């Protein structure tokens, strides 16, 4: 009773002083409601204006925070071009974005692509600067680059909550040496990333990330091999995009498969799990909203609180700017209803 009274008095003092409490009612909930919006600096540089629901121009960070977003995911490329869609995301830009996120009270996830541009299931091209290096040198390249980026963040005062070693790597990374055709080498590359991250930031949670989060056979095959080859990691990251699956099924056809896979991954490997990428069609707003609510629910329902969060991939990347069909932003520069799914309480 005494502590409650003191807390109420403190809140009243803050309100009369024109201040807001530094913690929100949701601060006790560490469930990540996140967004990868690495395109933001390019969008801002191009003159794109973000509007809130009232039609007022506003910082994208503010709009996302007002929609429940409490974490940011940032991709980083080794030596990117200045292409507005497939470039940027250099070390310096990543640090600058991470600092902005921290100022907005958001946690940070860092996503190493280990390429000069997009790395995903269809392509895992090694950085041009690493081409021609033998495998021992590639191990050093990966360690040094990872250590350098992590150190730059640390020097700026940012500690990433989570760090991905590779982006969507069902076939491996840094081809051909790091292909799953040679799991012992892939595991060595993964472990060099893990070691570099922990050398700078022991508390950061290291994630390994595979796509098609509804495909349990795919995940069992991959993580069984990772375990057998001694790959080091702390958390399992999943992508879930019904739009990119064969036939583009509605999420209702495979959301239970996602739930079953989440539960299996957590129990089979004794790891926390997180949907690190999700997205729905921007023209099917209600469907995407419903999907996001369902995905969050399924992650929260993983036994023993091992489901740790959900990240939307580029919600702000309006199709009018990016030509990407899975944002949560309209042609009017405003967020769609889909983004409100992150405001739904458990």
Task: Please tag this protein with its features.
346 residues, alpha/beta, 8-stranded parallel β-barrel, 37% helix, disordered N terminus
Concise account of the structure shown:
The chain is of the alpha/beta class.
What does this molecule look like?
With 346 residues, the protein is α/β, with parallel strands linked by helices. It is built from ten helices and eight strands. The chain has an eight-stranded parallel barrel, surrounded by four helices. β6 (235-240), α8 and β7 form a beta-alpha-beta unit. α5 (135-155) runs parallel beside α6 (183-200) and α8 packs parallel to α9. It starts with a helix and ends in a 24-residue tail after the last helix.
Question: How many E-type strands?
Answer: 8
The CATH class is identified as Alpha Beta
| Strand arrangement across the biggest beta sheet | 1-2-3-4-5-6-7-8
Second CATH tier, the architecture: Alpha-Beta Barrel
Count of the separate structural domains:
1
């Amino acid at each position: 009773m005494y502590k409650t009274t003191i807390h109420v008095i403190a809140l009243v003092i803050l309100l009369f002083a024109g201040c807001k409490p530094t913690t929100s009612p949701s601060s006790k909930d560490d469930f990540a409601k996140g967004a990868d919006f690495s395109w933001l600096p390019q969008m801002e540089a191009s003159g794109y204006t973000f509007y809130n629901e009232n039609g007022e121009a506003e910082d994208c960070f503010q709009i996302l925070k007002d929609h429940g977003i409490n974490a940011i995911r940032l991709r980083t490329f080794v030596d990117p071009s200045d292409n507005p869609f497939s470039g940027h995301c250099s070390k310096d830009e990543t640090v600058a974005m991470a600092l902005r996120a921290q100022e907005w009270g958001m946690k940070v996830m860092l996503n190493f692509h280990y390429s000069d541009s997009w790395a995903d299931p269809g392509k895992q091209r090694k950085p041009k600067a690493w081409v021609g290096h033998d495998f021992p040198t590639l191990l050093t390249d990966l360690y040094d680059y990872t250590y350098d980026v992590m150190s730059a963040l640390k020097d700026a005062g940012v500690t990433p909550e989570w760090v991905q070693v590779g982006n969507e790597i069902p076939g491996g990374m840094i081809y051909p040496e790091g292909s799953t055709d040679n799991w012992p080498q892939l595991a060595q590359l993964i472990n060099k990333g893990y070691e570099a991250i922990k050398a700078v930031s022991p508390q950061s949670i290291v994630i390994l990330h595979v796509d098609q989060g509804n495909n349990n056979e795919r995940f069992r095959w991959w993580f069984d091999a990772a375990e057998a080859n001694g790959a080091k990691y702390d958390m399992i990251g999943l992508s879930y995009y019904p739009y990119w699956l064969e036939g583009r099924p509605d999420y209702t056809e495979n959301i239970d498969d996602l739930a079953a896979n989440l539960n299996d991954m957590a129990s089979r490997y004794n790891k926390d799990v997180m949907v690190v990428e999700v997205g729905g069609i921007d023209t099917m707003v209600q469907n995407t909203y419903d999907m996001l609510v369902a995905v969050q629910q399924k992650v929260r329902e993983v036994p023993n609180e091992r489901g740790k969060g959900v990240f939307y991939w580029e919600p702000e990347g309006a199709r009018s700017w990016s030509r990407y069909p899975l944002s949560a932003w309209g042609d009017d520069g405003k967020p769609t209803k889909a983004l409100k799914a992150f405001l739904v309480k458990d």
